[in-house]
Amino acid sequence: MKGTVGILTAFLVASPIEAADIAAGKAIATRVCAACHGELGVSVADIVPNLGGQRAQYLEIQLKALKAGARNSGVMNPIARQLSDTDIANLAAYYGSQAGAGSTTISDFMPNISKTSVQFPANHRTTFTKYGAANFPDLKQVRHYYANPVAMQAAKAGKPLPAGAVILSEVYAAKLDDRLDFVKGPDGIFAIDRLLFYSVMARDDGWGQDIPEILRNGDWNYAAFLPDGAPRPRINHAECLACHRAQDEANYMFTHKELTGAAAGRGR
After folding, report:
1. Residue where a domain terminates, one of 50, 82, 108
2. What is the residue range of 9's domain?
3. Whether residue 135 sits in one domain with residue 261
4. What band does 18 get if pLDDT is binned at 50, 70 and 90?
5. Distance between CA 260 and CA 244 in Å, rounded?
6. How many structural domains are present in the chain?
């Protein structure tokens, strides 16, 4: 706590609070921030903080810390880095001017963000190529990654992934032994217990046209599916877009290196 207070105090001293334009802040909030935090600062989920009614100065300090990386958030860091200090001041003033809401109130998802054009690729085991796997010990998960032929062909050629590319992740609960330690294979990858869900990213021409630029991942869309292939409910694609936004030079993928490495290995 002491370290956090010190960081925020430093931002307060080094970054004086800007004069604010509430109307300009509302324009940004309505276009982008409402996807997670709601247009009036009432968030779309219990795990997302409400911003309405917070002190504007507090919000500004937090956003500047996120922009500089002094406060770490995989979702918010890439978004805050795209905001000017004036944008931050305006957003803070706007959300600070709102009344706030009770702890049980949530906002609806933004329609242009919550929609997705991604379909479940039911045949991925026979038509896609598995190119990697990764452990997630904090989540007690292991994920297996697959790419469709369009993505593999582009990766082999060293080209950006084009329209028609699909990347799928099988998300499993990791297997634990009697001592609750992870069971690992010879390669160090966790053994699988049960399939939890599928995570899919895919792109096609025009799929990103309704997404605001600050969140847009080119023409990539995201979706999650239950083990039976049905859409996973209450998934806020704004979080996917924000998290992947910082990977713009790697086809918006966290596993681009693994994909291109696997493609090159099979090409030899």
Report:
1. 108
2. 2-108
3. yes
4. low
5. 18
6. 2
Q: What is the pLDDT of residue 234?
A: 87
- How many Å apart are CA 91 and CA 52, to the nearest integer? 11
**Are both 131 and 257 inside the same structural domain?**
yes
Tens digits of residue pLDDT in 21-51 = 999 999 999 999 999 999 999 999 988 999 9
Q: Is the separation of the CB atoms in 168 and 224 below 8 Å?
A: no
78 — pLDDT class (breaks 50, 70, 90): very high
How many C-beta atoms lie closer than 10 Å to residue 204's C-beta? 16
Q: Which tokens sit at 197?
A: 């869900």
103 shares its domain with 11: yes
Q: Structure tokens of 96? A: 């600070």
Contact 164, 194 (CB under 8 A): no
Could you tell me which residues come within 8 angstroms of residue 48 by beta carbon, excluding any fewer than 6 positions away? 36, 37, 236
- E strand or H helix that includes residue 171: strand 166-174
Host H or E run for residue 61: helix 56-68
Residue 1: is its pLDDT beyond 50? Answer: no
Q: Assess whether 150 and 255 both reside in one domain.
A: yes
Tell me: the pLDDT tens digits for 154-181? 999 999 999 999 999 999 999 999 999 9
Q: Reduced to 3 DSSP states, what percent helix, strand and coil does the chain have, rounded to the nearest 5?
A: 40, 20, 45
